[in-house]
Amino acid sequence: MKERxxxxxxxxxxxxxxxxxxxxxxxxxxxxxxxxxxALVIAVYxxxxxxxxxxxxxAQPPNLLAxxxxxxxxxxxVVPNIMLSRWAEHQDLRKVRIGMVVMSVLGIVPLIIRVFxxxxxxIKWDSNAYGSVVWTLLGLHxxxxxxxxxxxxxxTALMFTRHGDNLRRYGDVQDNAMYWNFVVAAWLPIYGCxxxxxxx
Length: 200
Hints:
The chain is mainly alpha-helical. 72% of the residues lie in helices and 0% in strands. The chain has helices spanning 22-51, 64-89, 93-119, 129-159, 167-196.
């Protein structure tokens, strides 16, 4: 008769950091789904561009300033975001609190820039297919900035409570930092499409 082996999992930690965390995998899956959405809208942009006799349709290319400032701000935000993720890995509560406040501000700044960016597109969303796809790309990206900002603000508030100094919250901070990197990375091909392909 075969002896039955029973595994005792009661001593395993409830929470973990990085790939050992279920929420890390959930965040990664969400980014893959959202990345597919961005890729599909970019594919629509490229398809419409390939059909059009001139591109952009009945409009001047968007002004470069707001989009370029947005790009610089987003790329610059990656440095404190990486530092924040490392501080969370080392469970340094003081530094994580500072990093969360910094990333909260760096989540608000792009939204302010985005207001000016929409105003400099030189076309309305309902003018034609070009206007619709450009506004859709910016709208999707804006939604992701807002989503991450809300998560960042909630986590910032939690880090300043008694719930802040535990492994679960540090894992949440790391997941949030990973998602922000995705928001930044997703912006780069969008910026290229909207601001540079329109000038080719």
